Model the fold of this input.
Amino acid sequence: MKLLNVEVVLNREKGIQQAESEQDRILKELDDGTTSYAILSHRWGLGVEVTYEEMIGLMTLEDRKRDEVKKRYGYQKIIKCCEQAMKDGYKWMWIDTCCIDKRSSAELSEAINAMYRWYQNAEVCYAYLNDVDGLLFPTESDDSKFEQSNGWPEWFMRGWTLQELIAPEQVEFFNKDWVYIGNKQRLAPTLEDITRIPRNVLMDGLVGKRLSVAQIMTWAAERTTTRVEDRAYSLMGLFGVHMPMLYGEGKNAFRRLQLEIIKETSDHSIFAWDPRMPRAGSVLAEDPSDFRGYGHIRKVEPDDFGDKLVKYIEWKKLGNPWYIHRNGKSISTNPLHLCRLAWLRWRARSLSQQLRTFTVSNAGIQVCLPVIPLPDSPSHFRAILACGYGGGLAAVDLVSSGSSFDRIRIYSTPKTYPEFKTLHLTHHQDVDEKRRKFTLDDKHASYHGFIRSGTYPHEFRGSAVTLSSLTDGLVVIVYANNDARSRFAVGLGYHRGQGWVHVVYDERFPAQEADGTTFGSRAYDRMWEARAKHAQSMPKRGHVHHFTKHVHLPRSIWAARVVWGRWEMDDFKVMVDVEQCPGCCDGPCRTTMTHARTSPFSYLFDTRPSLVTAAHIDHDIPLGTKLSIPQRPHNTSQLNTSRQRELWASSRYVCPSHLRSRVVGFSITVKLPNYRGDTAQGWSSSKSSVSMIRV
Done:
């Protein structure tokens, strides 16, 4: 490493002439393992730092340029740092701004790969907090003073300073005027609160600690770097891995870092992450922020995994346990269940070597895991990881994609026993994923006082949302009219390449739930469980240009209406509207789908002219008792085929629950083809009065 000669730097500043060449005197290549030196940790300033070439050639610059360099904030920082090193008795000093020739990519790559070691071998690290002006280290968060850095000095929010805090044994903190305000040992409790790094790690470093990958990643989750690649490069030393620098690769740097980590460890917690926005594809995270909130994850050794797996099965009540409850405890009484648990425990122990072995290839990351198939989709699985928190285990959701498995997010609850399988997990982003954009137009709903009151499962703003085929994407938007105490939810879903739309109403409107979160959650669960049914019920291609679903809202004169276009169009447009529906509070509560097509009886009659009409298809919610129509049409001669009679006899209507206390009469108009011989001559109507008896 190239180190600054403290004495030469300070003598040059005082104007003392040097006998030897300036470059040879200012910087010298030395061994970090045998040299006693101090090192600086600081926050870079934009355009104010002194580079390597400026530092070694300062005296050869013309007077105006030399004066400009000396007046820089970065140059004064170097001088103050060297003065502190001289005061503490150190001859050599390392500062990243001027001790690395960044014009050489080889030297830059070497420095970044060795930087953790350089900080670790330093006698002392000076941590310069340029935004602290007090004489005491801040011990409480102050959002007004440190607004841009979560209430703490900015030094604690930078990516590179994480390793610069952990690696050195001795870290001393200075304020902006270079006044000493504390050291790492004395400030360890406060530093633990700021960084969430355990105190024993701050005091003694990483050596000998049984830390999981997820734990270390969480320390970097809130930190930022100027270059996106440095999010990965700044963590190499913490994991003890090395890789070449490729500035310009973007987020791929973090993927490469995780693959290097996998080569060194069999820690399953590298898969235990969860992004803020659901995404599908690689089992590797895109950024350290994906590990936010997973600092409690601990590794589970293969020898202990079998016992943990059995506890997981009992906790989730997988299989067929047949529990009885005694003294507040659940006890399984199914002997087959107990035998299955014993077999799984033995199986986990026999596969301990496979559980601790990862193999990386272009086919994916080969790993042995216990997986549980989901009940409603044979290609979706939940894989249980050898890591967790407390007595539980973490799990990830996977979907089969050819010979490999992609990561997804699913909301179904598996109930069967796990089985050990050797899987190839996708570690690249070019997965076979289809995304579709849903464009939502709901401005008309506000005309009647219905506004968005919440979305589920994540926040959705604006007029467009993109859903993934791998995740069985679903978003639920809740609309409410607080004055009318009425609410409904619209679901936009994407299941196995088919988009679908559904609408449900809220049967109750509690005053304390103004944001619709609970209703949105209930609606989401209902729609998710029935997503396959909703996708299958969507009208298929044909001479149809738009479709409509509407649902009557109880205790109101409103009906929610959703209109959408053809799915095969690139932009799937959905319109949400509310229309006045007089009398619906006394009529049947039902969901209706309407679409335009050729003759509605085309599926009953093969020989017919191409008559075009509007078909109205009712999907009645079964709230009451089914009642048969008590009489046929008056003109029974119109029913001159067995198919027509069968159609008439199978008609059923629903008695709504809120009408069961009274007798109600209503009329039904039936349209059937009027046949003469084998040729349909037109349409005939027949009216029938039907009474609902009290039930």
User: Anything to note?
Assistant: Confidence is low (pLDDT under 50) at residues 584-695. Residues 143 and 377 are 48 Å apart (CA to CA). DSSP finds 19 helices and 32 strands in the chain.
